[in-house]
Design a protein that fits this description.
The complex is a heterodimer of chains A (271) and B (305). Chain A has 271 residues and is an alpha/beta fold. Chain A has 6 helices and 16 strands. The radius of gyration of chain B is 18 Å and the shape is globular. The chains are: A alpha/beta (271), B alpha/beta (305).
Chain lengths: 271, 305
């Protein structure tokens, strides 16, 4: 059994991605190896309030000196993320990572993968896209958001897709950029036109994930969803973040997920 | 300075006073990569019922100021799976195991104990008569002195192992229930469990938790827990106490020992950091060294007024 510990990290870089979203880069003193879909539990400061860490999907990990740089894309939604948004560079935090499982990236049939991201669901999808590009595995990337201003990291998404000759599909609910309407409708149009995928990997708001699960069930497409549930411990003991599976069991999203095959989830996900 | 951290809860010897509280350390092995259970004073299992329980709907947890409210509802794998899948490895590792026992009826508590009696490697039972998150059992057995005494007496008759009772801070007369547990045959008392609490989403105009209310834990409740340990210790000075409530540091442990606890359990701190219990034990040693305490048991009940 490998001993694991809490990683001391420092904020090394931060940049604004949209009015509410930012990229945070954290440097560790030791190597970190993680797979797309895995996440970390990050402290928001030193004090007892906020008490709990925040769970963030990893958007990328790269070697740096003797350690690594761990990248996160974060939306400011409350006090914890607000504190992270305004920490000075160099601030010390603690990170438990990597946690949970990852997407199934293996190719097989010759069909492409479909990567689908909605809003701040982008981080694990971006991590997967850049890793697939590095391995030259073909994929299309669907990136959706409420409006143009909230489409994140379009340039990086485009670069990754171009490496493998895939398509980058942008969609906005208000039609301000790309195709108008939900990103899942953009996926459905291409499936209806005969495009085939080996598997779809997705992260985004729950209604988007549910729509994709339904689409997968109707069209016989294997779908993996990265779920977001409020987490307290991140390591499977508090049982706060459970999701219901098809067999009726409640399992912790942090430990058995956060990535689940849509077909394993309770039927209401596909209803 | 060489510090001895060894302590006793009644006749049970602990290598240090820091244990993992029920519901925050799984079944003893879940966090083994982060915190080897054999290095703690002991571990208290997630509450075990006769059959597996699914627990409550979500949302089950919400963060509050310096605390969190949970309403997990005693989701657990059931006593049989614990004895089969976890206990042998805990025994092999020489972990001090306290089984937290839960039932919806008195008979269900006895059923859990009876199953555990078939296996070696359990140091004590901790009766959970204080869970605020279930509709039957739990807190209802912990609030009325007569009911509690009868439950403890029945459990007492079914085992020669040590019997601890985890008291509810929600009971109207704390000392009365403490005395009832002891009169029923408890060897030690653990206190406190979570406080009934609520969080509201003002924009949605709804309770945050699916069950409306839950149990508050974390540093926010530490002063209440200290007061309760102090109160029970003064009323029943001969009864061994295990202090629980918002412990985040070695210094916090010292405070509980001074109030009269012989050992402590760390809960929400583990939820924040799976390595917390070990860190806290280390900090306790450093605290003792810094303040000339050669033997941690010097602190127990050591308030000077």
């Amino acid at each position: 059994m490998i001993a694991r510990h809490d990683l001391p990290v420092r904020v090394i870089a931060r940049s604004e991605l949209s009015p509410t979203c930012f990229r945070l880069e954290l440097v560790t003193g030791e190597p970190v190896s993680a797979a797309p879909g895995q996440f970390g539990m990050l402290t928001c400061g030193d004090g007892l309030d906020p008490l709990l860490r925040r769970a963030f999907s990893l958007a990328g990990v790269r070697p740096h000196e003797n350690g690594a740089i761990v990248e996160m894309l974060i939306k400011e939604v409350g006090r914890g993320t607000g504190l992270l948004h305004h920490l000075p560079l160099g601030a010390a935090l603690r990170l438990l990572a990597p946690l949970g499982n990852g997407f199934t990236l293996a190719d097989g049939s010759g069909d492409r993968l479909a990567l689908v991201a909605g809003g701040i669901g982008l981080p694990p999808v971006l991590f997967a896209a850049e890793q697939l590009a590095a391995r030259n595995v073909a994929f299309d990337l669907y990136l959706g958001a409420a409006s143009s201003a909230e489409l994140l990291e379009v340039g990086r998404c485009r670069s990754a897709v171009e490496v493998v000759g895939g398509e980058l599909v942008l969609a906005t609910d208000d039609g301000s950029r790309g195709e108008a309407g939900f990103v899942t409708a953009a996926v459905e149009r291409r499936l209806a036109a005969g495009r085939r995928y080996l598997r779809a990997l997705a992260c985004g708001p729950t209604p988007m994930l549910a729509a994709l699960a339904r689409l997968g069930a109707t069209r016989g497409l294997e779908v993996e969803l990265s779920l977001e549930e409020p987490m307290a411990c991140g390591v499977g003991v508090c049982l706060g973040c459970v999701v219901e599976l098809e067999d009726g069991r409640f399992v912790p999203t942090c430990k058995e997920g956060p990535v689940f095959a849509a077909s394993r989830l309770a039927a209401r996900w596909r209803a | 300075m060489n510090v001895s951290l060894r302590t006793h809860v009644g006749d049970l010897a602990l290598q240090n006073p820091v244990m993992a509280a029920s519901g925050t350390f799984g079944y003893g092995l879940d966090l083994v990569e982060f915190c080897p259970p054999e290095r703690l004073g002991g571990v208290v299992t997630k509450g075990l019922s006769p059959k597996p329980r699914r627990g409550n709907p979500t949302p089950r947890i919400v963060e509050t100021a310096a605390g969190m409210i949970n309403a997990i509802g005693l989701q657990n794998i059931g006593v049989e799976a614990f004895c089969r899948d976890a206990l042998p490895e805990l025994r092999r590792r020489n972990v001090l195991v306290v089984v937290n026992v839960f039932g919806e009826t008195q008979d269900a508590y006895l059923e859990v104990i009876t199953r555990c009696e078939r296996d070696e490697g359990i140091a004590a039972y901790e009766l959970n008569v204080s869970c605020p998150n279930v509709t039957a059992g739990g807190m209802e057995f912990g609030h009325d002195a007569g009911t509690l005494m009868s439950l403890v007496a029945r459990c007492r008759a079914s085992t020669s192992r040590r019997l601890w009772v985890k008291l509810s801070p929600n009971a109207p007369y704390l000392v009365d229930t403490a005395r009832a547990a002891v009169d029923g045959g408890a060897d030690a008392l653990s206190l406190i469990n979570t406080l009934r609490a609520m969080a509201i989403d003002a924009v949605a105009r709804r309770p945050v938790l699916a069950t409306r209310c839950g149990g508050l834990s974390g540093p926010a409740i530490k002063p209440i827990a200290l007061r309760m340990v102090d109160e029970v210790h003064r009323a029943l000075p001969a009864v061994p106490l295990v202090g629980i409530g918002g412990i985040e540091s070695g210094r916090d442990v010292a405070e509980f020992l001074l109030a009269g606890a012989s050992a402590v359990q760390v809960g929400t701190a583990i939820v924040r950091d799976p390595t917390a219990a070990l860190r806290i034990a280390g900090e306790l040693e450093a605290f003792c060294a810094a303040h000339g305490v050669a033997d941690v048991t010097e602190l127990i009940g050591g308030l000077t007024c």
